[in-house]
Design a protein that fits this description.
Layout lengths: L12 E3 L10 H16 L7 E4 L1 H10 L3 H15 L5 H18 L4 H14 L5 E7 L15 E5 L2 H13 L4 H9 L9 E7 L5 E6 L10 E8 L3 H4 L6 E6 L5 E5 L5 E6 L2 E6 L12 H16 L5 E8 L2 E9 L3 H11 L19 E3 L13 H23 L10 E4 L2 E6 L3 H9 L1 H9 L2 H21 L7 H44 L18 H17 L2 H9 L2 H6 L9 H18 L18 H11 L6 H22 L2 H27 L4 H17 L14 H12 L8 H15 L6 E2 L4 H6 L9 E2 L6 E4 L1 E4 L2 E8 L14 E4 L7 H4 L4 E4 L7 H9 L3 E3 L4 H4 L5 E5 L4 E4 L1
Parallel strand pairs: 21-22, 22-23, 23-24
Antiparallel strand pairs: 1-2, 2-5, 3-4, 3-5, 6-7, 6-12, 7-8, 8-9, 10-11, 12-13, 14-16, 14-17, 15-16, 18-19, 19-26, 20-24, 21-25, 25-26
Helix pairs in contact: 3-4, 4-6, 4-7, 5-6, 10-25, 11-15, 14-15, 15-22, 15-23, 16-19, 16-20
Length: 894
Amino acid sequence: MTGHVIPITTDYIVSLTETDEEAVTLAIAGGKGASLTRLAQGGLPVPGGFIVTTDAYRRFVEANDLQERIIAALDAAALGAGNEAMRPAALESAAREIRGLFSGGTLPDDVATSIRTAYDNMGSSSPVAVRSSATAEDLPDLSFAGQQDTYLNITGAAAVLEAVKRCWASLWTARAIDYRLRHVVPQESVALAVVVQTLVPAETAGILFTANPINGREDEMVINASWGLGEAIVGGQVSPDTVIVDKPTGQVKKIEVADKTVMTVTTPDGTTESKVDSRRRRERVLTDTQIAELSRLGRRIEDLYPSPQDIEWCWAEDSFYIVQSRPITTLSSALAAVSQAVPVPDIPATDTWKGPSRRAKYMRNNIVELIPDPMTPLFATLGRHTINCSMSRLMADFMGKRGLMPDELIIIIEGYAYYNGDFGTKEILQILLNSVGIAKYMFTGAEARWLKADAAYRAKVAEYEAKPWRAASAQELLEMAPDVLDLAISYYGALVAGLIPAAWISEGLFSSFYKTLVKRKSDPRPETFLLGFDSVPIRGEKALYDLAQWAAAQPALAEHLQRTDSSRIAGQVDAPKEVPPATWNAWQSRFSAYLAEFGGTIYNLDIATPTPADDPTPVLGTLRLFMRGGGRDPHVRQRAATKAREAATQQIVARLRGLRREWFKSLLTRAQTRAPQREDGLATLGLGYPLVRGMLLEIGRRLTDAGAVAAPDDVFWLTEAQLAAAAAALDGEAPIDSMAADVTARKALWAARREVVPPMALPLLPKFLRRLFPALGSVDRESDGDTGNVTLRGTACSVGTVTGTVRVLRGPEDFGQLAPGEILVAAITTPAWTPLFAMAGAIITDIGGPLSHGSIVAREYGIPAVLGTGDATRRLKSGDRVRVDGAKGTIQVL
């Protein structure tokens, strides 16, 4: 395909193998043509072809007397574009007028003859790609990629001539005109060359960046790869595989296999988007050998240019072909963003953090406990607004009066969410006066309110899921997503306003009564009476264990699941070759049923974080552990806990008499009822999250298609105002400026902020008080004078002593790092973390107490837990050896 030599070089045609540099300048060949010629001269595998020069474009414009009419239309567009409200209509009107001129124009005979002759020289039946090559495109500081048209699988001279005319006309789309206006590119100076190349029947294709465009690192290369022709990637129709390569050594640092749903394929009259065979959707596109070869080509290409390159490639007939190379225009902004956002000096030391008011107290408690990381931009705006509106309604009902709470209950300090305790003396007195009513509201009808909120939440989610919401406008989607999120927060409010405190008080009252008036030295601990009950997390663990046992009994399936990457398993639909289809279909049905019932839990409240239903890869790690015989059979564990509970209850009831016996039974019944209900409630909180995320990601996909962001999930790194403006532009089919630089900068800032552990309360207490109450703020490690060991302190939540290796997990993306028996250290755990408890030797968290999810589940699993340490995720490092004492609430670093 690189062997076609086009010997003809005229005023209107230049061969891609032309060696005369004056014949292939940017002004003559356009950016794409000039770059391809340089690649061909450098011995790179460029498909054969020719360039229709800008002189041919100018000859066409002159012969059809178009220039004055183009300028007149542009003048009208420039006037209209000065008013943002009129801009889209003015630009579209000019574009229609100018493109109509090109459509009605006639190719001059000398130009048409030159193109026909060059095409015939390639072989008259050769299908070709006809690509625009603008004189203003692919400059180091501007990227016009995608502004003009490309036509693939064109056959026959007449079709080639028509495609060339259409490429010329594409210089005058509304988007291209607007882009040049905004970047002050003189409209009258632009012209368009056209590249005609042999069409490579690509089996796979993609993009190679010779520097990492996200973090700006020039010692990394990034490869995107997908099936079929490369247009699906360039056009944003598919999420490709992503490979990060160490540039100096060529070693693969990371591979992310995507679910590639569509591919571009040829048809008799062009190309079309086709669904990827389900068997290949989650398969790796490139082998290690191909990655190594492509990386070598990337280094060779970069040596030809003064800056890192964005390279389009394809693979066919056991060879790579290069069809484009241009500067990475986003690299400078990525480097600037990283240099501005990542350095530690930009993130103030936590002991200098202050709230907006000196007299107020700001706490990371209540709903904020479910937001352990810095808030992503969309959640910090849209999400926080939804939380504040919902919680304000709740607190007005809770307090029995409006106006007692701050306007913004959740505020942001250094990127982190804090509960706003800015109360004046008047508000505090009114809250105290209403305390009886508050208590009555909290404990009267708690279960009924929860069940009512649960029913409303489920009904609303079902209603939206039944709608064709993917066909809605972007602005409609942006209205629906907060509506569903508001229901989720309102549902959480029903838990906070009754079920959670009722569970906390019920268990506390029972424990205090039992310890004070019932327990003898030989009697079991209070938690023994509360174990062995079912809840959504426990039922989910048992269901996963049962699925693992079934899968382990299918030899071919078991082998495939154990040796295949989780991300691939999650996306596979059709049976692998080695697994019988009936077995694979049964697996798919069972795993889908598991996710449908238990995949709606959340790892945290931020909508940027996928749920297990969105991304089941973390769950598969626990499933494989169960398949290998690791972890404890949850059925056996639950039966043992139930037997111990029933025996202890029978023993105490038989011993007690009179009022003590009745109080014991009454308090125990309440505690045993409320604790599982609370776990059920928290597990259901994320029910609508896959729907909310799906709506926002649909907007993200449209923004990706429009070139505004690099990937659909970049939508979570935009602010609500940005997204609202972008949605309006999408619905009005107006041009949208790229927001990639904002996304890059915000990701870098978020990553830097995540490296600190925020104080649990502001302003900070004096250091001696922080030592007494570690959950209220970070302190330095304490040293044991006798042994030299360092000791951390938290709240004793589940008894037992374990010595083991620490594994600090930030979120679901780290779940695969936990090895059986390691000490799990996290900011907080939610029901979605439950599968990890089967692997962990002990649990340590920054946030939490005796009645939090982590402590309850740890007791069910019979593993030590020390929660509420304040900042164990900062003070402990993966690999540390520690001794956890769940009875004393200490962690000794050995």
